[in-house]
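ARCHIVE CARD
CATEGORY: sequence design from structure
SOURCE FIELD: tokenized fold
FIELD CONTENT:
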């Protein structure tokens, strides 16, 4: 579809366009390169802006180990939100779940466990048995659940991911990318905030066995809120770490570290880098008019365009006033037009490089004008 740049921008960045009133500009803060950390692959993401702040081979397909259970958890939380599961619901333990192998919460076929206990057993102590039991409860069998995992990954835009199982045991085609794990983590944070506390619990007790959370950062950094660890010989040590400092969230995904301590230090260094050298601001408010377009065939003729959600942008410290914005709208806008229907794109740039882009939508319902209405619109447009 053809695009054209609209010249009728009625909204400005909330910080304002700063006028250069001084011949000598203040020096900008120096921004170092991302730290060199012990990880084959990593990505640092701000979930508010959905921007990547730092990355190394973030799109490469690699084994995820138990980070796989983030998708198992995602579908479980989805089932809870949809009312298909209840936290206090008792879950049967099959022989397959009991004999899953690897890390375990020590399920037994004759010992009852609830959905909530299995969520804790899966995300806190990485129980493969819990992952299998939940998958069987939701989908009837693990193979059908894996189909759900891959379908969900496709829906979320995880284009470098393929799952073969529910727990992360290695196979040649069971692969993800660091960026895809960050995408999944973003959606868990956004869709299921009421369940996030499980990922940061420091220990879990079941069957008279107490196990500590495998994530070292939940003990050493009070700002770290979760999410998940993983390790196999093929994957190395993996860590998906979420943190909140002064109300701002960041996600650090590190894959292929040489040790558990190395993965924790890598994630911590990336988080510190993001918090120390980047800021995230709201550029536009939800439903704020960004562009107006006049169309005589429309009723009303003036179409107000913006975003139904807040538009956030992440930039290096001190660089926000350097942002520029440009809006494009479709050359042919279909009528009638529903509120929320996409009609263009907003691009925020810095130093001639695109920082982020956001879909623009109609902020109102627009009808197709009749012949009399068109004449009125044409006449009004002359004045």
């Amino acid at each position: 579809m053809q695009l054209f740049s609209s010249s009728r921008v009625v909204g400005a960045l909330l910080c304002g366009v700063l006028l250069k009133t001084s011949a000598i500009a203040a020096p900008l803060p120096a921004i170092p390169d991302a730290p060199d950390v012990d990880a084959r692959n990593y990505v640092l993401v701000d979930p508010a802006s959905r921007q990547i702040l730092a990355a190394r081979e973030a799109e490469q397909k690699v084994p995820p180990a138990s980070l796989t259970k983030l998708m198992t958890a995602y579908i479980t939380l989805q089932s809870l939100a949809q009312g298909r599961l209840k936290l206090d619901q008792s879950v049967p333990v099959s022989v397959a779940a009991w004999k899953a192998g690897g890390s375990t919460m020590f399920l037994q076929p004759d010992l009852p466990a609830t959905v909530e206990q299995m969520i804790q057993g899966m995300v806190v102590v990485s129980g493969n048995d819990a992952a299998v039991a939940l998958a069987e409860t939701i989908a009837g069998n693990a193979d059908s659940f894996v189909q759900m995992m891959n379908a969900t990954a496709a829906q979320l835009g995880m284009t470098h991911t393929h799952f073969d199982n529910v727990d992360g045991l290695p196979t040649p085609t069971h692969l993800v990318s660091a960026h895809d794990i960050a995408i999944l983590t973003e959606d868990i944070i956004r869709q299921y905030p009421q369940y996030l506390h499980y990922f940061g619990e420091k220990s879990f007790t079941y069957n008279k066995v107490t196990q500590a959370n495998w994530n070292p950062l939940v003990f050493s950094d009070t700002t770290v809120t979760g999410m998940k660890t993983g390790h196999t010989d093929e994957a190395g040590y993996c860590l998906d770490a979420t943190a909140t400092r002064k109300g701002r969230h960041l996600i650090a995904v590190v894959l292929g570290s040489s040790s558990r301590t190395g993965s924790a230090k890598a994630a911590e260094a990336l988080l510190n880098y993001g918090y120390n050298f980047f800021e995230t601001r709201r550029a536009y408010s939800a439903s704020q008019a960004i562009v107006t377009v006049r169309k005589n065939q429309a009723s009303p003729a003036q179409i107000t365009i913006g975003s139904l959600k807040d538009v956030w942008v992440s930039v290096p410290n001190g660089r926000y006033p350097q942002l520029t914005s440009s809006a494009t709208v479709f050359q042919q806008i279909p009528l009638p037009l529903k509120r929320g229907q996409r009609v263009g794109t907003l691009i925020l740039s810095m130093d001639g490089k695109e920082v982020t882009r956001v879909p623009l939508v109609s902020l109102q319902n627009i009808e197709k004008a009749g012949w009399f209405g068109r004449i009125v619109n044409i006449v009004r447009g002359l004045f």
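CARD ANNOTATION: The CA atoms of residues 348 and 354 lie 6 Å apart. Residues 1-23 have pLDDT under 50 and may be disordered.
SHELF: design records, drawer C
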